[in-house]
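Long-time lurker, first post. I've been practising inverse folding by hand and with some scripts of my own, and I keep getting stuck on stretches where the structure tokens seem ambiguous. Below is the full token string for one chain I'm working on. Before anyone asks, I'm not after the true native sequence, just a reasonable design that respects the backbone. If someone could post their per-position residues I'd love to compare against what I wrote down in my notebook.
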């Protein structure tokens, strides 16, 4: 099992979720809809100086779906260049 964490601009949230639901059967996820912070290239603080915000999507999935998720994120990054979309993957273990 893998924990996938996507941090991205809110402008790409619908695209990512739609593609995940279309290509990963039974995908489950949690979205934290408004997050602020500093990335490598910019600030996303939701303020008048730095008005944009990000979202975080967390999903635990079977390892066999990770390559599909990587392809989805790569496609979104290609289509929406400069939005700072990041994918982080960590091996996870479910406690019985």
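-- Answer (accepted) --
I ran through it position by position. Result:
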């Amino acid at each position: 099992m893998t924990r996938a964490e996507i941090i991205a601009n809110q402008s790409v949230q619908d695209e990512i979720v739609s593609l995940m639901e279309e290509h990963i059967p039974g995908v489950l996820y949690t979205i934290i809809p408004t997050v602020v912070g500093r990335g490598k290239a910019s600030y996303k603080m939701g303020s008048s100086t730095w008005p944009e915000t990000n979202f975080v999507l967390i999903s635990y999935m079977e390892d066999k779906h990770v390559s599909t998720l990587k392809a989805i994120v790569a496609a979104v990054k290609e289509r929406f260049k400069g939005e700072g979309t990041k994918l982080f993957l960590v091996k996870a273990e479910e406690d019985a």
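A couple of notes from the structure itself: Residues 1-6+20-51+61-83 form one domain. The first helix runs from residue 13 to 23. Happy to go over any region you disagree with.
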